[in-house]
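Record type: monomer structure entry
Structure origin: computed from sequence
Chain ID: A
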Amino acid sequence: MLLLDCTTEPAGLTHLLEAGTEVNVVADAFVQSPAHLAAHGGHAFFLLWQLQTGANLNQQDWFGEAPIHKAAKVGSLECLALLVASHASIDLRNKDGQTAEDLALALGFLDCAQFLATAKHIQNRKTTAQSCHSQSGNEENLPSNSATRQKRACASNRSINKKRMRSNGMAFTPQ
């Protein structure tokens, strides 16, 4: 494919543009897009260009792998950081049920596996915080008992955080 022959020089991008390459076009029998190839080659510059031109971050190939899997398989921390920052799905699984983190760990790219684990942890914390925040304003619209329990847990955490300790060990709530 033409993408593999390009250098990081602007002339390489010009050749791609002149050839009329589309960002989500399937490049081979394995259903790999130019974003897959850029991530698999560890070419963050070309991956960024693909993402800026509308490449599908989560497009899966024949093996069920997205660009995040390809970057993890070659240990490209730069490509992984770019994909995570662009909101690629960290939990996406290939046909063997493996996430990008699983692949990085299995192939010995411990820094990449740690990065993905940390990114997933941060993403989960943000989701939990958003869930607590979104439920705090609409008590009458809660659909189930589990949602009510979650709201109460969030509310009780907030009220505990508002309490202050006096020097004598007694708690008081500011007015």
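Annotation 1: The chain has one domain: 2-126.
Annotation 2: Confidence is low (pLDDT under 50) at residues 1-20, 139-143, 156-165.
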